[in-house]
Amino acid sequence: MDQALSISTSGLNNINHNQIMGSSFIFDNFASSTPSTFPAAANNEKQTEALLTWKSSLDNYSQSLLSSWHGNNSCNFVGITCNDYGSITHLNLSCLGLRGTFDGLDFSCLINLLSLDISNNWIYGFIPSSIVGPLPSSIQNLSNLNLLHIYSNHLSGPIPEEIGKLVSLGTLDLSNNSLCGSIPSSIGSLTNLSILRLSYNDFACSLPPEVNQITRLSAFDLSYNKLEGQLPDEICQGKLLQNFSVINNHFTGLIPKSLRNCSSFIRVRLDGNQLTGNITEAFGIYPQLELMDLSHNYLYGELSWKWESCRNLTSLTISNNNISGEIPAVFGKMTRLQKLDLSSNNLSGVIPRELASLQFLLDLILNSNRITGDIPNEIGFLSKLEHLNLASNNFRGSIPAQFVQCTNLLSLNLSKNKLEGTIPSEIGNVRFLEVLDLSQNQLTGRIPQELGKLRVLETMNVSHNSLLGSIPETFGDMLALTIIDVSYNNLEGPLPNVKAFNEAPFEAIQHNKRLCGNVEALQKCDSPMSKKGNGDGGRGTTAIPVLTFLGFLLLASIVILLLIFVRRPRKNIKREDIGRLNDLDFLCILNFDGKAFYKQILEATEEFDSKFYVGEGAYGIVYKAEISTGQIVAVKKISSSPEEEILDFVSFEREIQALSNICHRNIVKLYGFCSHLQHSFMVYEYIERGSLRAILNDDEKASEFAWDKRVNMVRGVANALSYMHHDCFPRWIHRDLTSNNVLLDADYEARISDFGTARLLRPDSLSWTAVAGSIGYIAPELAYSTIPTEKSDVYSFGVIALETLMGKHPRDIVSWECSSSTEIGSPALLKDVLDQRLSPSRVRIRDAEDVVSIARLAFMCLQADPRLRPTMRQVSQELRIRVPLEMTFSAVSLEQLRDLNGRKFQGSQGD
């Protein structure tokens, strides 16, 4: 967890020690007053000796990273800055990957140290007592302090009453700690305060009324505490408040009148409280407002026409309240709106056709209301729409074919309505659709075969309708499909031979007419021969001898092949007779006793019971297993026995040994491989937090995945790929890099997995089209070349880098970058496409520099011509360099980032 602390050095000697539990720490002098100048008589030799002594306490790898630390002049050491007198003033060792503690560093020699940055390393233990500790009452001595940042640490206890003596304070940020107790009334003395952030703590109290005395506030954030009582009455009396956030507390009562008249608002988050009152009267006109979230409260009344005055509004969420009435047609005038969520209320009437004017709308969420009428055809005009949820309403009529115009649609949920007619075949042209739910309607007719073109569809539910006929054969091409429900229809015929149907529970296919297939409780499908019967004029009788002869030839061929195979030499393969396990053949390439370990895995997973399921990767399902030693491992059960496809066991063993010998902090460790004719599996290191995709798809987890963690994760992926491409022998190409196989450990450190799996299990298949789950990450040149290269991995890295920054797959940007177009539609600013769950406007300067750097490099990696892409070594090296921004972060545009790629790496093919 990144830790940041910014405080004046004037109180340095009055602060006690505090334990650091995370991976990074920042200390800096941001005081507005001139910092104290310590005497220049520091012993330079002692400084050098102290640094070299500390270096020697680190592990060998860390010492190699500090190879410039030698000699008698510490001012020449990497990461060291000195003043004119040769005394160390700044120590910056961020992002080096150092491991160890600060126990061996004598800070008493560094008397003129102004800033210390060891962020994004593996430093653990205690912070020396001469630097920082728990928030002490002696902090009152910093009377000239203008800025106090101690966010993202492990501070505990209450805020001291003496905080009120910091009368010059303009910014106070104590967020993301474990502070508790009450907020002192003395905070009202901080009348110069413009920014107050106390979010992500354990405060459980009501706010002191003295908070109303802080009239210069522009940002007020108390989110994610246990605060109760009413919101401050006069918190906006200074008319300067722009950002007001109290997410997930226990506030009750009415919305204060001062908030209704606070025309300076830009972002307001009141969601997750117990606020009451009439929404029609509680809010005013906010010409600068960009985001308003009132969800999960007890507000009632009707939606006001005043919202049309919020012409800058991009996100309006009022879900899970008791709002009634109709959706005002004037909502169509909020032309910058990107998200409209009015779900789980009591809204009635129809969807106003004026909403078709919202050309930048991405999310339209109206489920769980009482809205009636037809679904307007005009929804098809919302060309940027990604998520449409109209479930659990009273819509009638047919499904509009105009949905085909929503080419960016990712999820479409029309379930639990009264829709009639057939499923429009045009939906098959919405090529990015991932979720389709049309269940619990009154749909009839056949399932259109055009739906088989939805190659990235993951979930489809058409249950509880009156659909008939067979399931189209084109569904056999839907390789991304994982969840299917066609129950309670009149379907018949064979199930498609894809994983979603083959592994579907009976509940997902029950109550149909005559479905057949290889699913338990379904009858087997009749063979084509038996369906023909004897109505062929006796030709079936003639065919029997022919088939018998062909069968004999096939059997003879198999016997000959088996004899040849058995006589082949198989050197260096550990094969074991495992006795009573049906005397089946057994292969194990593993750093354990194969026979015993195989049994342990079966016992630990209860023969791969679904309760141990943790995810799914290429070629198999992943289970969590705790073996007898107490070690937890990840076990990937291979979908089909690799022995069916692996003919050269000696080569296979060498590949496994090569993979298991790879040791890099950003690559998941492979322990080995076990194969039995009953089960085959690969055994990996277990990574706690799961995949990047799972984290980004979970709002709560994504909100905790802060910018510094995301930056560090991208660096880790780059380091791993650089190692694979340039430092391994033989070199490795991942071939299937996606957000699903980038895993994160407890410290949000990136670990890439699944590399080499395709090469191991399908050595003759070099085509990416044979690799599951890579749609959306495939380099464009693989459309005409079936051989992936290092530059294919570079392209996939560019997609993942942008996905990490945006919080979702960057489809539009990837399409734009790979096209010949030089323009992209609004919004064209970087801040507008970043993950809004992290409030991009609040990104720290150092994080902003890193985010811009990653985005710039991502565009380089996404160039259509692979020769113009950098190598991963170049990317990894570039990510170590922090380039100061030449403009404000909010002004950086995507066009500028695209132009910045320059073609600096043109023709880079080597190291």
Automatic annotation (TrEMBL):
UniProt keywords, alphabetically: ATP-binding, Glycoprotein, Kinase, Leucine-rich repeat, Membrane, Nucleotide-binding, Phosphoprotein, Receptor, Repeat, Serine/threonine-protein kinase, Signal, Transferase, Transmembrane, Transmembrane helix
Positions that bind ATP: K637
Pfam families: LRR_1, LRR_8, LRRNT_2, Pkinase
Residues that span the membrane, as ranges: 546-566
Membrane protein topology class: Single-pass type I membrane protein
Location in the cell: Membrane
One GO molecular-function entry: signaling receptor activity
Enzyme class: transferase
Entries under Gene3D superfamilies matching the protein: Phosphorylase Kinase, domain 1 (3.30.200.20), Ribonuclease Inhibitor (3.80.10.10), Transferase(Phosphotransferase) domain 1 (1.10.510.10)
Protein name: non-specific serine/threonine protein kinase
